[in-house]
Amino acid sequence: MSAIIEAEGLHKHFGDVHALDGLDLTAESGRLTALLGPNGAGKTTFISAVATLLHPTAGRLRVTGIDVAADPRSVRRVIGLAGQYASVEPAMTGRENLEMVARLFGLDKHSVKAAASSVLDQLGLADAGDRLVRTYSGGMRRRLDLGASLVGRPRLLLLDEPTTGLDPRSRMELWDAIRNLVADGTDVLLTTQYLEEADQLARDVVIVDHGRVIAAGTPDELKGQGGRDVIEVRPRWGRELDAVTEVLTAVAAEPPRVDHDTQRVSAPVDGGADQLATVVRLLDERGLSVDDIGLRRPTLDEVFLALTGQPIDSSDTDPDAPADAA
Amino acid sequence: MTDTSTTLDPTPTAVDEPHAVGPAPHGAGFATAAVATSRRTVLQFFRTPQLLMMGTIQGALFLFMFRYVFGGAISTRGALSYVDWLVPGFLVTVILWTGMGAASGVAEDSSSGVYDRFRSLPIPRASVMVGRSLADGALVAWGIFTTAIIGFLIGFRPHGDVAEIVLAFVLMVAAGYAFSWVFITLGLVAGNAQAAQGMSMLVIPFSFISNANVPVASMPGWMQPFAANQPVSVIINAVRSLMQGGTDVVGIGHSTGYWVALSLAWCVGIMVVFGTLATRVFSRPQ
Predict the structure, then answer these.
(1) Strands of the A58-63 sheet, one edge to the other
(2) Which has fewest Cβ within 10 Å: A163, B58, B183, B188?
(3) CB count, 10 Å around CB of A118?
(4) pLDDT tens-digit profile of A153-207?
(5) Looking at CA atoms only, how far is residue A180 from chain B in angstroms?
């Protein structure tokens, strides 16, 4: 297994803002690595550095072993970038967009046509290929944008928040497309602020906050690192939320969290199954009836909370996010 | 390359795709990259009816107003009728009005991530800017051509010989190409389309404080040195003399050759300064 991206002590300062603050990261070849973090964590800055769009203030960065600062041109031959906004041309057809990028990658006339057709097929856009992109839905534009980044057959795909602003169905279609690419042997680095996305797609997850890596591992390892298993209870009656919370407080290792939207109380516990039995007994003694009770591993959301002391807050969308969701 | 796997195929056929193992693409050369990116800008223009129509209608409206509303009150102080005097100057100012669109187009591409993609590709970065300027040069030529037809319809007739008239058009296109670098630079510096539009308002003094629509002699004395010597007026003198048969007919000093040479000098100067500036700004990493 070789490293496709190696970053050591990467710093990037914009005036007083330290967008990257000593970031260390190694992404292995042959898998998808997700950079997970809230807005302003430095994800886009890091992707831009890998894509040779900006010079780090300090530190070392290698892509497929090539030093990015010393030889950016060689790096550009092995990467494909899909930025935060679908940057395809609305006044051109899907096929024309792909052919233009393929041409810029240096493919000859024949290969350009073949590559564009193959990518359109691969992304399920064959039928729409000869329509102007202006008529595409937001999800189709994103898929085409992904296609534009891979039409030159790069070794490493860089995807910056590829599904931000998409509806759930388009998001899943894009996830499938990305999974297929990884299965075909393309390395992928993607940034996301959606925990579910990292959980679904990534073999390796790197959690970033304030320009630094605060944890890294497989989703399972991270959930293990986040520590304790969680007991989650949904009382039958909303009015009993407080009583249930009291019960959980008695056994929990940390104060329980109450989610009023879903009417659930959850609390990390030491000792898993034993504690679950205790909770069931205590609820029964007090005559509290429940709709649902269970012991589960922590979600990445809870891991993030445990590591940073604040929720990642992926629920509210970025006000600057493109409003092109169909 | 017989990949038939679709998006929703749960079991992608893994190894028959020579995807990641082939040699890395070497990247397009300068000319290929410039042509491919300029084609995008040209298609964007001709396939966006708003862009296509707005420019033409705006040009026609201004031409109508000067010809029929203000024209009667303006004396050319020479041998030429107002419409014959006006149109050559007006054609030169088309360069400026078209350029405003170029500035906001460049700003749009900067902020929308299009240029980030181009910068991440294995092509010479300067080729993207050269591509843009070629496209803008072509769009200026289109604007001048359509405006010339409108001018002809409202009574404009050139009096120079054919070679001179052709040379006048060549000079205008060359000037349009040179000025496109100014607008590309503005677009890159502005950062977003609205700011670029605002900065492009700079074209108003260059367009109106010139000899395009009224003779400089009718302006107050303090304004005349700028109005007579700024590059747009110099180019207008050259184009007007070429189209109408010499500096005597137009009523200005020097020879036609003098104004053409001075115009070309301005074009080269503008191109060198702003061409360097634009490619520097575009190519430098942040």
Answers:
(1) A17-28, A3-14, A58-63, A66-67
(2) B58
(3) 21
(4) 899 999 999 888 888 888 898 899 899 889 988 999 999 888 888 888 998 999 9
(5) 6
Nearest CB among B3, B7, B118 relative to A173 is that of B7
Query: Which of the given ranges, A40-44, A248-252, A293-297, B168-172, has the highest pLDDT on average?
Result: B168-172
| pLDDT, greater one: A173 or A91 | A91
Long-range contacts from A12-21, C-beta under 8 angstroms, 24+ separation:
A12/A42, A12/A45, A12/A49, A12/A54, A12/A56, A12/A57, A12/A211, A13/A57, A18/A210, A18/A211, A19/A45, A19/A211, A20/A45, A20/A46, A20/A49, A20/A56, A20/A57, A20/A59, A20/A211, A21/A210, A21/A211, A21/A212
Assign B23 to helix, strand or coil. Answer: coil
> How far apart, in whole angstroms, are the C-alpha atoms of residue B108 and residue B191?
8
Q: Per the CB < 8 Å rule, is B117 touching A48? A: no
Cβ-based contacts of A107 with chain B (< 8 Å): 25
Q: How many CB atoms lie within 10 A of CB B205?
A: 13
CA distance B39 to chain A (A): 9
Residue A290 pairs in a beta bridge with A235
Residue A113 CA neighbour count, 13 Å, CB half: 2
Encoded amino acid at A69, one letter: A
Of residues B5 and B191, more confidently modeled = B191
**Mean pLDDT of all residues belonging to chain A:** 86
